[in-house]
Amino acid sequence: MLRLAVLASGNGSNLQAILDAYEGGLLRNLQPVLCVADRSCKALERAAAWGLETVLLEGKHNGEKLSEALGRQLSDRRIDIAALAGWLSIISGKLTREWTGRMVNIHPSLLPEYGGRGMYGEQVHKAVLDAGEKQSGCTVHFVTDSIDGGKILGQSRVKVLKNDTPDSLAARILIEEHQLYPKILADLTDSFTAE
Ligand code: GRF
């Protein structure tokens, strides 16, 4: 079994979807063992309620220091795959290079559109609506030192509706995220163990 850490900063609904998928047997070769957060958040509560080990990297950690502390947590706990699920802090290039091919993220747009620095949360959906896009969606990709720029592993699409607000669009995309992320993690780790 490969060991999974989920990195979160917010509500943790993607974390929950991953935990549910594990319980449902979808993550055949991957076991959630750790949740790391960079701030106090609902995701940590969900993780603890599930019985996952939790680590809060807060306060004295910022910038490079946060990435160093994160890297130590991941290696101390012999993590194989790190899945960013609503994690908001920038991860240093040094750490992303050390984790090449083993660190993934989910982003609520059809990358490469509407990604990059500052494109998170409501900003993404507002930009999509302002541009009059007919569709949006979510993307799972490898994490590299280019923000939201790593190789795309999978996407799901949703139609943009006439009366959509950033909130309504975000909510519809989130439903797709909860399906897509566990599936991509399962496929990725199957490919590891087949090697
Ligand atoms: C999701 O929309 C994800 O794509 C983005 O942040 C949000 C996290 O939601 N990176 P949650 O904390 O998993 O509920």
Provide an overview of this structure.
There is one protein chain. This protein is an alpha/beta fold and 195 residues long. It has a single domain (2-194), classed as Rossmann fold (3-Layer(aba) Sandwich). Helix content is 40%, strand content 23%. It contains six helices and seven strands. Strands 3-2-1-4-5-6-7 form a seven-stranded mixed β-sheet, sandwiched between helices. Helix 5 crosses helix 6. The longest helix has 29 residues, at 166-194. The two termini are 14 Å apart.
Considering the chains and any ligands shown, give keywords for the structure.
binds 5-O-phosphono-beta-D-ribofuranosylamine; Rossmann fold; alpha/beta; 40% helix; 195 residues; 7 strands; 7-stranded mixed sheet; globular
In short, what is this structure?
The protein contains 6 helices and 7 strands; from the N terminus they run βαβαβαβαβαββα. It is of the alpha/beta class. It has a 7-stranded mixed β-sheet with strand order 3-2-1-4-5-6-7, sandwiched between helices.
CATH superfamily annotation: Formyl transferase, N-terminal domain
Question: Which ions and ligands are bound to the chains?
Answer: 5-O-phosphono-beta-D-ribofuranosylamine
- Biggest sheet, strands in spatial order? 3-2-1-4-5-6-7
CATH architecture: 3-Layer(aba) Sandwich
